[in-house]
Amino acid sequence: MSDELMEYKVLNAEIVRETFKELGGKTGFFHDPMDPESWESVLNAYAREGWKVISSNGYVYPGDNGSSDLIVILGRTV
After folding, report:
1. What is the pTM of this model?
2. By the number of CB atoms within 10 A of the CB, which of 17, 27, 55, 67 ranks highest?
């Protein structure tokens, strides 16, 4: 195992939406938080800061509404 010290960050649709707005992206009432363009912009912004995707997992909430979320864990050495 490596002796490198790592820090981690967890992203979900809500965090991606807020970060996308901070990057100048347009979001509104009908914005889809699972929009691939939002995720691509945000993940690329984190990559420029040295973050790498460590893991990701999708989740569908039980019930009739069919809502879902995506969790992405980022990591980088410190």
Report:
1. 0.72
2. 17
- In this structure, how many other beta carbons lie within 10 angstroms of the beta carbon of residue 74? 20
Torsion 52-50-31-29 (CA) sign: positive
Residue 20: both structure tokens together: 């996308």
Contact 23, 45 (CB under 8 A): yes
Sequence-distant (≥ 6) Cβ neighbours of residue 72 within 8 angstroms: 10, 11, 12, 43, 53, 55, 56
Distance CA 55, CA 70 (A): 11
Q: Which amino acid is at 39?
A: W
Judged on CB neighbours under 10 Å (0-12, 13-18, 19+), 24 is exposed
Residue 57: HSE in the Cβ half-sphere, 13 Å Cα cutoff: 5
